[in-house]
Amino acid sequence: MIAMKKLFLYLLAIVLLGSCGSSGNGELVGVQKRPKFYQPEPYGMVYIPMGSYTMGVGAQDIPYGQLQEPKTVSVSAFYMDETEITNNEYRQFVHWVRDSIARRLLGEMMPEDYLIEENEETGEIYDPPILNWEEDIRWTGEEERTALEELFLPEHERYFRKKQIDTRKLMYEYFWVDLQAAASKNYEEGDPSLGSFANRPQGMEDRTQYVRKDVINVYPDTLSWIHDYSYSFNEPLTERYFWHPAYDNYPVVGVNWKQARAFCIWRTELLNSYLGSREEAIVNEFRLPTEAEWEWAARGGNTMSPYPWGGPYTRNSQGCFLANFKPLRGNYVADGGLTTVIVGHYPPNDFGLYDMSGNVAEWTVDAFDESNQSFTWDMNPSYTYEAKEDDPPAMKRKVIRGGSWKDIGYYLRVNTRGYEYQDTAKSYIGFRCVQNYLGRQKGDNPSKASNVY
Question: Whose CA is closest to 323, among 443, 218, 409?
Answer without folding.
Answer: 409
